[in-house]
lipopolysaccharide heptosyltransferase II (Geobacter anodireducens), 356 residues
Amino acid sequence: MDIRQETIGSILVRSTNWIGDAVMTTPALRAIRESFPNARVTVLANPLVAPLFTGHGAVDDVIIYDRKGAHAGLRGKMRLARDLRTRRFDLAILLQNAVDAALIAWLARIPRRMGYRTDGRGPLLTHGVAVDGATRLLHHVEYYLAMLARFGVTTGDRHLELATTADEDAAMAELLAGHGIGSRDALLGINPGASYGAAKRWYPERFAAVADELSRRWGARVVVTGGPGEAAIAADIAAAMTTPCVVMAGKTSVRELMALIKRCDFFITNDSGPMHIAAAFGVPLVAVFGSTDHATTSPWSERAVIVRRDTDCAPCLLRECPTDHRCMTAVTTAEVVEAAERLRAGRQALPSQGVS
């Protein structure tokens, strides 16, 4: 079925709810834009994710779905559906898997509703796709593209895409200059957080050791990134380091975080939203993986190396480790430093070192 043969003038895209997942949908957004070049594309996203799509080349408009505020409860959903109905969308593309996304599109009387038949929402979809075992094994970038391809919505360009403005970049440069970091200084980003849960996090003292060593070898300045919930972890890293660093965790908006990561020359990170932002901006990065599945959520970049250890319990996909966190304790600072050196030198990392 090729939906491109139908008259589609206005499209609502329901975004995913996590920053990393949302970044991984950007090739799907490009496929939508290329397949419907004359349609108006609007993204519906929560307040955390919505800033990612400001000024995005594939998006014309962004609507915020505030489930904790204006759109809380059934009454809030009905209010949102009424607002969407006035815009007369021809097609809803549901990249989020929840029944909530399909229910709102149905309540908004959007005549065509496309998405995976997950969460029992199949009857609410007009263009549904079943999820089989092979589909579940796809990398998230391919997962979203595979659903669209069933209806003729494709792209030949599968790279991630984010954008900041010149003003945002200049403002970040000014902010860093206030901390003594000039435009010619090499900048190493350290991202110790992972909002999903502690099971995804490597250890502050090991991040600190890596930052100290790479800063010494490369003559780089160090900035520690993260959200408000990671400020304490960032402070622990700063306290453990022997060289000065700039702690920006909890001090940036999403847009400012994007500009900061874009400015980095290298990034050391857990599996997290900022990891995917770095991949989208082509920043070389080393990612430490433990409890999560590197096959489906690895950084979608040729300038990335994963450091992980095969253990009998990983990937468990749990928020908190119920045992001894062996998937993370097994990853050493020496391995991460070596992976960074090899990537910076343009050499492939060695699988025998536990590096992918």
Remarks:
- DSSP finds 14 helices and twelve strands in the chain.
- The domain at 3-149 is CATH 3.40.50.2000 (Rossmann fold).
- The two ends are 38 Å apart (CA to CA).
- The mean pLDDT is 90.
